[in-house]
Amino acid sequence: MWKTILRRVLIMIPEIILLSILVFLLAKAMPGDPFTGSINPRSSAAQIEHLKQINGLYDPWYQQYWNWVVHLFHGDLGQSYQYHEAVSNLIGDRAVNTLWLSAFTMVLTYMLALPLGLYAGKHEGRLPDTVIRIYTYVTYCIPFFVILVIGLWIFGYVFNWFPTTGSVSPTAHGMGVLSSRLEHILLPGLLGALFGTVNIVQYMRSEVIDAKHSDYVRTARSKGVPNKDIYKHHIFRNSLLPIAAFGGYSITGLLNGSIFTETIFSYPGMGMLFIDSINYRDYTVITALVLMFGILNLLGTLLSDIILGIVDPRIRID
């Protein structure tokens, strides 16, 4: 297994290099520049041209790319044109907020999805199964941003139960910071979990239905194993295999940051930072974020294989 992990990591190196070139070129191909409209409106065209010149925007693309890579290997992601601070510090601050929201959403998603899928599969064709399937179909049909907007309007503005912007209240201190952070991520995390349960519930239900009609379950029943133990030790564990295969993608996908969630809730995470960097043509932030998202997705593929091998010892990567 370790040999395969090492081989996969080595294969990722040329993929990351190709990804970095594409990301850099696409960012440079965007119309506009980071200076026009973002500095003093009284600045002359000559001053703007001077800023472009000293920042190397007129250098050949390969020279700009090489300079960017050299700085990247020294841990320097560049300076944000819009925020006037180091990109690494900017992403680091936003990554903490995204990590909190992602972890909370992930825990809620699996806490809701696994019992619902198991319960629906156990009561196949009955009323509980029908209700759960209707819930998944309705949730699947409604666009995610619609769920977020409706949830924000009802629970944030109509009932005023949750804050509608930010990640921590500016007046929070000490232990109040943790309480305020949880209060800010509760609504977007819950809405994201309700939307994220759809695929997991459907996969879990299908696997439970297949497993309960399998030969090893019939054998266990013939030996007098209680139904509760059959579902707990046989059906549930084997039904986790396809879900575990997508576990790495789910984790890294959430860490990438939900653009819809963070934008609608004005939550200062990496997703909202990405949208802002595009609007202001902040090339250094765009390239750093897209490259990081791409690397996380590559790691997600590897992580899914590792999780699958841990869940089922029979599936080992030779």
Architecture overview:
The longest helix is centred in the middle third of the chain and has 38 residues, at 175-212. It is built from 14 helices and no strands. With 318 residues, the protein is an all-alpha fold. 74% of the residues lie in helices and 0% in strands. The N and C termini lie close together (5 Å). α7 crosses α9. It has a domain at 94-272: MetI-like (MetI-like fold).
Question: Can I get a quick summary?
Answer:
Its main location: membrane. This protein has 318 residues and is mainly alpha-helical.
SSE topology:
Blueprint (H helix, E strand, L loop, with lengths): L1 H27 L16 H10 L6 H13 L13 H36 L4 H15 L2 H15 L16 H38 L2 H8 L4 H13 L1 H5 L1 H9 L3 H6 L5 H10 L3 H29 L7
Helix pairs in contact: 1-14, 4-5, 4-7, 4-11, 5-7, 6-7, 7-9, 8-9, 11-14, 13-14
* Overall pLDDT level: 77
- What low-confidence regions span 5 or more consecutive residues with pLDDT below 50? none
- Discrete helix count: 14
CA radius of gyration: 24 Å
Helicity range of the residues? over 70%
* CATH topology descriptor of the domain at 94-272: MetI-like fold
Note the main attributes of this structure:
transport, MetI-like fold, 14 helices, 318 residues, MetI-like_sf, transmembrane helix, mainly alpha, single chain, cell membrane
